[in-house]
Amino acid sequence: MTDSRRVRRWRVAIAGVAVLVFGLTSRPALANALDDILAAGVVRIAVPQDLPPFGAKDKDGKLEGYDVEVAKLLAKGLGVRVALVPVTSVDRITSLLTHSADLVVANLGITPDRAKGIAFSSPYAPFFTAVFGAPGVVVQAPADLDGRKVHFIHERGRGPDPLPIILTHGFPDSFLRFAKVIGMLADPARHGGDPSDAFDVVVPSLPGYAFSDARAGTGTTFQIGDLWHRLMTEHLGYDHFAAHGGDWGSLVTEILARDHADSVVGIHLTDVPFYHSFQKPDDPSHKEKAYLAQIEKFTQKEGVYALIQGSQPQLLALGLNDSPAGLAGWLVEKFRRWSDCDGDVEKRFTKDELLANVMIYWVSQTINSSFAPYYDVAHAGATTWMKQKLKEWRGSSEVPAAFAMFPKDLSHPPREWAERFFNLQRWSEMPRGGHFAALEEPEALVRDIREFFRTLRSTRLAGSLAKTAAD
Q1: pTM for the full predicted model
Q2: Distance CA 452, CA 404 (A)
Q3: Average pLDDT, rounded, for the chain
């Protein structure tokens, strides 16, 4: 790819976020800023060293943090060097006004008012603010598991005894799926709830998504449950925890609970993992027959995306990684089709939310690795499914499960279908919402999660006491 084409491509991506989404700077101002950076061959990034995680150093003494990582990826796309300018939190805006820096990255706990001020100060800052300055998100960190990095958000609960919970996203979204619910779950009193319902919230990026390293080899999707268990117990030190997921997050959460029932107090899902429909029962009810027919119809009419992502992922990814417009089209059309928006995607999602999610894929160049779960399921042989079925017989029915079913989601299984595979304790039919429940109906989802786990918190306490007695 020629330098001019690469720069033009990144101009489109940056302008799409800084101008079309936020409207915070004019096109001439953005173009002039880019021209100055390209002429100098360097982008100067002001890094506040007195605010976590920027004050932390890696083993080589260099500053670390995901804001810095994204800035480096952006600079790589423009073909320029990165110069980190150490500043204090007080002086970071001054560094822009005095032209000693081109960009200030947002602090990970920044308030909306301060974020707005920073966003107005730089043509690049809006993207970083949107992704990393979400209110309530305090810590993003890497966990080194088996030599591979797992990116996750960790928000400590504010209440008398917060229950740890791990939230797992799916496709075509990212950890940003949960941006609206993290604060509600962690600090219920601040959002009109009971402090006793507080959670310690952990939101990891799936392997190969955003800033988590892809796992080596194929078939690793079925091992993410083990990875999450290690993250929660070995890395974060929780003995017992809850889990929630949707889309691929439902499959991962089911496997996590099935294989680690001693640690998982309960699971809350927004769909029944679709792979269960691969093996049709001999005695389906009338509602189950209708559901299985719906699945077959969806596969024929709308499932081509899954077929190509599972069969020839690299072929598709080559084009999507070369075009920000193509990537946005591939991702955003699913937000339109799969949400409760009546064909108008902006009834449910802001441009900020949609393009911030696209930029996560763009700057990390992970669209190819994000297809891995589709490839794993499509290429799983008889041995894999036999192993999964054996594990299902041994463990799935032990952990209490709840489902919040949103009417405009991809599929609509009846309650009796879920009862075949789960220890079903709660089944909630929601009045509105679609596939992206945490973004579309955050209050309803949080309310259902709180109510379900309210009765299970004593299970966690009993397990902790039993472990203490054994020790």
Answers
A1: 0.77
A2: 10
A3: 78
Cβ atoms 201, 157 nearer than 8 A: yes
d(CA 164, CA 232): 9
Is 374 a known active-site residue?
A: yes
Give the SS3 label for residue 143.
strand
- Asked whether residue 66 carries a pLDDT value surpassing 70, the answer given is no
b/e code 408-447 from CB counts within 10 Å (16+ = b): bbbbbbbeebbeebbbbebebebeebbbbbbbbbbebbbb
Q: Could you say which of 374, 376, 409, 412 is catalytic?
A: 374
User: Is the sign of the CA dihedral 255, 257, 263, 267 positive or negative?
Assistant: positive
Task: Report the first-to-last Cα separation within the chain, whole angstroms.
Answer: 61
Residue 128 has a pLDDT of: 39
> Helix 66-78 vs helix 3-15: angle between axes, to the nearest 10 degrees?
130
Catalytic residue among 200, 376, 435, 448: 435
173, 187, 213, 247: which one is catalytic?
A: 247
Task: Please report the domains of the chain, with CATH numbers, ordered by start residue.
Answer: 3-132 (3.40.190), 139-294+376-470 (3.40.50.1820)
Instruction: Convert the pLDDT of each residue in 381-399 to its tens digit.
Output: 777 777 777 777 665 568 9
